[in-house]
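Sanity check

After download, print the first record. It should look like this:
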Amino acid sequence: MIEAVLNEMKSQAANAAPLGGTLKFLLDDNPIYIDGTGDSNEVSTEDKDADTVIITSIETLGKLKSGDLNPMMAVMGGKVKIKGDMGLAMKLQSLLG
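Expected structure tokens:
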């Protein structure tokens, strides 16, 4: 399951403008690291420190992507936790398609 999410993020990140920072998803304790500090967004499974960390489940991420779950409600309800640079978190829409 995490491989499918990783592959999808890689393809979307390649088509999105660089984020201008680093971002890490922790999906059911599986890290997906996005380095958007260069000319493109590089996606890996490295567990490194990031400007923004988003903690959620693969199931919740799927609901956010499909539109079944409102991002603000997910955060308010504790289904998504965001640590660090909120401005960078707001740029996520381009990666989640």
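If your output differs, re-run the checksum step. Summary of this record's structure: Residues 64 and 71 are 6 Å apart (CA to CA).
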